[in-house]
Amino acid sequence: MVNFWSSVFELPKHFYAKVDSLCSAFLWKNKTGSAAGARVAWKDLCRPKEEGGLGIRLLEDFEVVFRLKHIWNFFSKSGSLWVAWLKENIFWRKSYWLTNEANCFSKTINSMLQLKPTVSEFLKCEETLVQGCFAFRIRKDARVVEASRNGNWVLPAAVPAFGNSQALMVALTDIVPPAQSNGRDTFLWRNIAGNYCPSFSSKETWEQIRTHSPLVLWADVVWFKEHVPRFSFITWLALLNHLPTRDRLRRWGMNTPASCVLCSTGVETHEHLFFECSYSTGLWGLLAAKFFNNPPFNLPAAASWILLFNLPHQSKASTVLKLLFQSVIYHIWRERN
Ligand SMILES: [Zn+2]
Questions:
Q1: How far apart are the CA of 44 and the centre of ligand 1, in A?
Q2: Which end of the chain is more exposed for a tag (fewer CB within 10 A), N or C?
């Protein structure tokens, strides 16, 4: 629903922040109130799974992609009523590139104009003369086709002071001049591989503008085709060290005993629960030893150990090991609670 309305209207930033907040509250509290006490910051959670998040897009950041899509529609959808209106009422005197923000423009128009630097990196028109206008005494909003006649380049004499104008003239001799009969300009958008395509991909555009985080090796151990969601979720929190263990609760100022409820001897930390505690050591050791002797007894090492089985001819063993690993973590945590 957010995607639909965002593709039609320029929505205020606080709308996206509110939707993000509602989603966070629903995830952590199972209701649409406050998300206070969330175990992972929403911004960290909104990373791709391979970067340690849950693969949710942060709407507050993703709204830039919606705005870029408006601009792509403006350039590429020449038959649209909205585009015709914009050209007739807003950009009738100057092109998008030469129009500056103004109080008389709506929020949507100013928002489109604010993104000119970003758009210039993504949008390409094969028949736009971008440089050299001044040197050749050409209007800034002139179209390339105006510089050709009957299949030949027709340019006024260059200003001698501009050293590169001659180089441009030489370069033009290798380019076939455009003709009206070739049809309209074609607009292209940069894809993730750096090539320009005649279509806009929100996903690929987002990948190019979002902030990337370091990859986490354990993502394949948590998220896989056969995963059980409640097991994966607790394992994900455990690998992030974000389960509310007693050492964390005490750091937050809560008056709770430090001892482990499973063995009553150690201090309850992530490292102790997974798997230094005598209870969890016995459980994980017994089950993991069914596959190989001497399995690792801490979470990151155990996850790396499981990844050694991530080979095509061992895919079934790898899946069973991942399920076993997650099931042990889930049931230890459940027993602890
Ligand atoms: Zn213990």
A1: 29
A2: N
